[in-house]
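Retry 2 of 3 after timeout on previous attempt. Resubmitting C-alpha cells to design endpoint.
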C-alpha cells in the first residue's frame, strides 16, 4: 500500500507545469465518497500546479451543493469532441471504482488514456495492470485520498490541505461510514476525521445536508417504498421495486432513494434488503444492504456487480423489474 501510494504521488507530481492533463473518473450514480474524493483531488492537483479535469455526464445531486468548487466539474463532451480531449489526456485516474465500465459513457474517453491509475477501497480484480492504489481496509476512498494528499504535501513541500478540501474529504468519509456508524468505521477513520477538524469542519452541517434534509418528493417516494415492500423467506429478505412511473409520479430524483435500502435492512429479522430502481434505458439498478450473515459484495459479484460486505450493488440488463426481483429473491434464498 505504502509503495503504491508513493508511486502514484510521484506520478501525479510529474505533471507539474506540464501541458498534459490528468483526467479524473468517479463512478456513475455518484455518491458522497466518489464526489468528495474526486473534487478534493482535483482542487489539490490544481493547487500544486498540475492540470487536471473532472468531466461528468450526470446531474450532481442538490444535497452536495454546500461543497465549494462544484463549478470546476465540466460537462462530458459530445462524442465527436472526444478525440480532441484525448490528445491532452496523459493519465486517467479511476476514483472509488476500478472498473472502466462503471464510468458509463465516459469509458470511451477513459480508455484512450495512455495510462490508467486507480484509487479505490473496493475489492476487485479489474484493476490488474493499472497503477493501482486499492485498499479494502479503508472505510472510504476519501481516506485514501487524504493519505495521498498528505504525501503530496511532503514530496512537494507545499501546504495543500485547507478548509474546503477538508469538507470534501469529510463528506466522503461520512457518506461511506453512515456518519461513523457502519462496521467499516475504524480507528484510522477517526484519526483522519480528527486531522480534518483542524480546518474548522462542522460535522453537524455535513450530516444535516447528507442525511436529515428532506423534500416533498423524497417523502412521497419513501411512503411508496415502505408501503409496498415485500418480505420473503421467513421475512429475512426485504424487496422494494421502484418503477420509472413511480419516480415520475413522485417527481423524485435518484438521490431521493439514498438511504432507503439501509432502512429496509434495519427492519427486525431482515438479513438482506434489495431496492430495485427501473432506469430509463430498460436496465435495473440494484442496491443491496445486508447483515453479518450475508456477504452483499460476493452476492453482487455473481451478478456482475460489487461493493462492500454489507453494502453492494449491481445493474441488471434486458429484464423487467418484476423478473429482476424474482431472480434476486430466488438467488438470495439459496444463499440464506
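Retry 2 succeeded. Sequence:
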Amino acid at each position: 500500500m505504502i509503495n503504491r501510494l508513493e508511486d502514484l504521488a510521484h506520478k501525479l507530481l510529474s505533471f507539474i507545469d506540464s501541458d498534459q492533463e490528468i483526467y479524473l473518473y468517479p463512478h456513475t450514480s455518484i455518491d458522497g465518497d466518489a464526489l468528495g474524493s474526486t473534487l478534493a483531488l482535483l482542487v489539490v492537483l490544481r493547487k500544486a500546479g498540475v492540470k487536471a479535469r473532472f468531466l461528468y455526464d450526470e446531474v450532481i445531486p442538490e444535497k452536495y451543493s454546500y461543497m465549494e468548487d462544484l463549478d470546476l466539474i465540466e460537462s462530458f463532451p459530445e462524442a465527436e469532441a472526444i478525440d480532441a480531449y484525448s490528445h491532452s489526456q496523459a493519465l486517467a485516474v479511476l476514483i472509488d471504482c476500478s472498473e472502466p465500465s462503471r464510468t458509463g459513457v465516459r469509458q470511451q474517453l477513459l480508455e484512450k488514456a495512455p495510462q490508467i491509475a486507480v484509487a479505490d477501497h473496493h475489492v476487485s480484480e479489474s484493476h490488474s495492470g493499472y497503477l493501482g492504489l486499492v485498499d479494502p481496509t479503508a472505510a472510504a476512498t476519501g481516506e485514501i485520498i487524504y493519505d495521498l494528499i498528505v504525501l503530496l504535501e511532503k514530496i512537494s513541500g507545499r501546504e495543500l490541505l485547507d478548509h474546503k478540501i477538508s469538507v470534501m474529504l469529510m463528506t466522503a468519509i461520512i457518506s461511506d461510514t453512515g456518519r461513523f456508524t457502519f462496521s467499516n468505521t475504524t480507528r484510522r477513520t477517526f484519526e483522519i476525521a480528527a486531522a480534518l477538524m483542524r480546518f474548522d469542519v462542522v460535522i453537524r452541517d455535513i450530516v444535516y445536508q447528507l442525511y436529515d434534509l428532506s423534500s416533498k418528493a423524497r417523502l412521497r417516494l419513501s411512503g411508496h417504498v415502505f408501503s409496498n415492500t415485500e418480505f420473503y423467506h421467513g421475512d429475512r429478505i426485504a424487496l422494494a421495486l421502484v418503477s420509472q412511473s413511480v419516480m415520475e409520479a413522485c417527481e423524485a430524483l435518484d438521490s431521493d432513494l439514498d438511504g432507503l435500502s439501509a432502512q429496509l435492512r434495519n427492519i427486525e429479522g431482515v438479513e438482506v434488503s434489495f431496492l430495485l430502481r427501473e432506469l430509463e434505458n430498460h436496465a435495473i439498478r440494484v442496491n443491496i444492504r445486508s447483515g453479518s450473515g450475508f456477504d452483499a459484495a460476493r452476492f453482487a459479484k455473481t451478478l456482475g456487480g460489487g461493493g462492500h460486505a454489507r453494502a453492494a450493488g449491481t445493474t441488471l440488463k434486458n429484464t423487467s423489474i418484476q423478473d429482476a426481483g424474482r431472480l434476486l429473491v430466488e438467488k438470495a434464498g439459496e444463499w440464506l
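Attempt log closed. The two ends are 35 Å apart (CA to CA).
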